[in-house]
Amino acid sequence: MASLIECVPNFSEGRRPEVLAEIVHAIGQIDGVTLLDHSRDETHNRSVVTFAGSAEPVVKAATAAVGRALELIDMSQHEGAHPRIGAVDVIPFVPLGHTRLEECVDLARRFGELIAKLYDLPVYLYGAAALRPDRRRLADVRRGQYEGLKAELGTNPDRDPDFGPARLHSRGGAVAVGARKPLIAFNVNLATEDVEVARRIAGVIRESSGGLPAVQAMGLLLENPGERPSAQVSLNLVDWEETGIATVVNEIRRLAREAGTDVDHCELIGLAPTAALLEVAADALGLREFTPDQALELRLARDR
Amino acid sequence: MASLIECVPNFSEGRRPEVLAEIVHAIGQIDGVTLLDHSRDETHNRSVVTFAGSAEPVVKAATAAVGRALELIDMSQHEGAHPRIGAVDVIPFVPLGHTRLEECVDLARRFGELIAKLYDLPVYLYGAAALRPDRRRLADVRRGQYEGLKAELGTNPDRDPDFGPARLHSRGGAVAVGARKPLIAFNVNLATEDVEVARRIAGVIRESSGGLPAVQAMGLLLENPGERPSAQVSLNLVDWEETGIATVVNEIRRLAREAGTDVDHCELIGLAPTAALLEVAADALGLREFTPDQALELRLARDR
Question: What is the pLDDT of residues B39-66, one digit of tens each?
Fold first, then answer.
């Protein structure tokens, strides 16, 4: 069984398309890597690339991408709305298919050590790959951003990186390398125009206010040209094995009906792990003893 | 994109486990082939092996399996309840993942010609691979079985094979090679003990009595030790892109409610194409513009 790993590096450059093109090209040149997506945000002055493959090609591609970004992006010139500490700001590794999170933790740590040496770059491990509990949250690692870190590094030992020198890279700053589970971005549109209903439901179900674990939610009013506006619960499921799509939708449906309305339809943003969607099918059919291995292509992927 | 093809050869030997073991071994030895299942039926004196891979290894493995079966099985000694014309009775090729049925049609024809030459074996093409409309149905190809075909071959030109000699192979008889879509075996258990309800629903939904296309159905009473008996609609979906799981279950639910009962739960027998299950998830969530490519692992498989 070959491991299948997704890598989603974020680059502090969103205004020069040619820079993103160069980085994407460097990634795409590695055999065994599949480019899944790339997007560029001018306001945030930031780009995100998504690619996947087995461990070795993914590490090769991520290493090449960091090298290219350090050549093309100068953090001392960077401005943008999004918090960041470096030219390659953050590099999460995400397990796909039957790959376990632990594999990505190992990979993130090996990769962090590798690029710290290769590029003389300070590397912080975050998420499931963190070596210190106070570095699990990306926000804590990024505290003070590039400018703040520049002032603290070398004087405050508490900010020393996990790998590499205790000073910023001359052009690239620092980088956060981590491991996390795949994130599912998902919206539930209600059969009402009353945004308060969506906000109340979001308040009940999100983890931060004591709701379902590993669920982030907010209520908003969706205005589609040519359609009636509709209240929407916008969701991130940050650990679908903890709380899955079916659980969330069933709970929102229950709350919506209590409020005298109902779920109209759902939207899946981008990609989701196949097993998370199969769980919805199994729930809908009341399948007993179903496993994702009963999905032919997944079963084949497992045995190869 | 590499094609992904399933092959499900049926062998006329179900009483000597060592023969099945030898055949499975011959298949498993081919690099790039994944064995998915094998089962042996003593009453039918017949075995079924399921394996998959890309076109070349699948052809190699199927060729090796035919060779081994011709050495180990003597049709002149064969008795069993299941209709059959040869030692390797039938070899269907089935498209998985993004592979199209047409690829399996081509493959079946090339493979049929190959084994006819290699083993001096009469080969009939059936299913989507048939060259004559009267050979699409396997039952028509098998008419008279091994014994009947032995009598007719060489005297009735209408029974001439598509490839190979117009006489049976001395040990192996003849073989039917075909292409078909994946079959989904699926049961819907009703919240009633009244088998008549299941029979009536099966009668309404099956294609043969004017119901849903590509659906085979029958009603039966399921008796599980320790549980209350329950009426079951047992289904084969022979073309899930024509009529999918969700359509069938929603229709059965409607009919069950009309009859004053409901669907209790469903059972998936064995494996099903991932996309057929994702369709159920999309239906349950009311997802708009969903494509199976939004399932990460399928998307990756497509691009590799």
Answer: 888 888 999 999 999 999 999 999 999 9
Nearest chain B Cα to A270, which residue? Answer: B294
Kindly report the pTM of this predicted structure. 0.81
- The answer, yes or no, to whether residue B118 has pLDDT greater than 90, is yes
**Domain identity same for B62 and B132:** yes
Does the pLDDT at position B269 exceed 90? no
- The CATH number of residue B99's host domain is 3.30.990.10
What is the domain extent for residue A39? 4-179
Domain count for chain B, please give it: 2
The residues, any chain, with a CB within 8 Å of residue A251's CB and separated by 6 or more, are A205, A212
Residues B13, B72: contact at Cβ < 8 Å?
yes
B64: in domain: yes
A85 and A143 belong to one structural domain: yes
Q: Contact, A129 vs A144, CB < 8 A?
A: no
- Is B287's CB within 8 Å of A297's CB? no
In this structure, which amino acid lies at residue A201? I
Q: How confident is the model at residue A70 (pLDDT cuts 50, 70, 90)?
A: very high
Alpha helices in B38-84, H assignment, sequence order = 55-72
- Choose from A51, A285, A291, A293 for mutation: most chain B CBs within 10 A: A285
Check CB contact of A295 with chain B, cutoff 8 Å: yes
Least CB–CB distance from A52: residue in B6, B35, B300? B300
ipTM over 0.95: no
Q: Which single residue is written with the structure tokens 């795409």?
A: A28
Whether A166 has its CB under 8 Å from any CB of chain B: the answer is no
Give how far A250 is from chain B: nearest CA, Å.
Answer: 10
Among A166-175, B32-41, B291-300, the range with the most confident prediction by mean pLDDT is A166-175
pLDDT tens by residue, A108-164: 999 999 999 999 999 999 999 999 999 999 989 999 999 999 999 999 999 999 999
Are B159 and B48 members of one domain? yes
Active site includes B82? yes
Asked if the structure places residue A194 within a domain, the reply is: yes
CA A60-A65-A67 angle, to 5 degrees, is 95
Contacts of B34 in chain A (CB under 8 A): 300, 303-304
The distance of A55 to chain B (nearest Cα, Å) reads 15
- Per-residue model confidence (pLDDT) at position A188: 96
Q: Which helix (H) or strand (E) element contains residue B268?
A: strand B263-269
Q: Is B300 among the domain residues? A: no
Residue of chain A with shortest Cα separation from B289? A267
Instruction: Specify whether the CB–CB gap between A197 and A112 falls below 8 A.
Output: no
Q: Do A156 and A20 belong to one domain?
A: yes
The enclosing H or E element of A93 equals: strand A88-96
- Domain match, B37 and B139 both: yes
Asked if the Cβ–Cβ distance from A294 to B36 is below 8 Å, we say no
Q: Is residue A34 part of a domain?
A: yes
